[in-house]
Amino acid sequence: MSLQLILRLRWRDERLIFNSSRLNYILVGRSRSERLWVPDMFITNEKEAQVHKTLSDNALIRIYPNGQVQHSVRISLSLSCPVNASWFPFGSVSCPLRVASYSRELTEMQLSWDDGGLAFYRGIELDGYRLENFSIRTEQCVTSIKLGKFSCVSSVIRLRRLPRRWLFTLFVPCVVLAGCAAITASFRRKNEHIVNALCFVAVIGITLQVSNAPSSDVIHAVDAWVLLVYGFFLFHIVLISYPKSKTNGCCSRRENSNQLPRTTRRFLEDNARIVFYGIFSAITLTYFIVVRLCTD
């Protein structure tokens, strides 16, 4: 996940205490900022980071009379986030932002979030995700390694997936094509070629669209939907083609005499289609209900 943030650090250095009735704080310039002690910290799940330097360095340091130092810097981060793609394109993604001490142990320096930790603008939307304020959780933690124990602070950013693109490019077209195939097959005419063409187009479109899904070793929710639709179109082709092939295979009166009456065959075929469409509709409704309940 990539994000841009303003990181504000605050600590107290007794060596920087000064008395002044004219100054509320001292603004340290770029040339002198390297002489000050700054906490050595790092982001544990950082993949790439960049400090903004448009026109000038987007960083400042203020020193207050009581020795308190405030350091602010604007950076862009690329974080490594564990993603559970089981419910893709539904559900949510939790991405941690973990800041830890690099060299000073727990007895020397302790980190803590101030003013509630992270703050985001309400209603931020990324590419296919939405961030909500209540989804941010901050906590203090301790990192234990062979060198010792180090203080750290962690914040989990929860992003909810927005399946709008997948709804309009995969789910809705599949339902529409399935409905068109069902309506076309219900006419008392020879529409097998039209139905087969619709099924073929649907399978190609589904395959191309699903190729854009993130790769993973687990089965996605979209994979279950694709298998359901593949099964629908496959059995639909069999259901439409079987009665015709069976009728064409009869070439003698004796074989024709052993068949059921024409009205009975039509009645059974129509009922079979109704049952088949009803089962598909029930499974589709159950699919969306389960996804809704499991991803809230």
From TrEMBL:
Name of the protein described by the UniProt record: Neurotransmitter-gated ion-channel ligand-binding domain-containing protein
GO cellular component: a single term: membrane
Residue ranges that the Swiss-Prot or TrEMBL entry lists as coiled coil: none
Pfam families: Neur_chan_LBD
UniProt cross-references to SUPFAM superfamilies, sorted A to Z: Nicotinic receptor ligand binding domain-like (SSF63712)
MF-aspect GO terms: extracellular ligand-gated monoatomic ion channel activity; transmembrane signaling receptor activity
Membrane-spanning segments: 166-187, 193-210, 222-242, 274-294
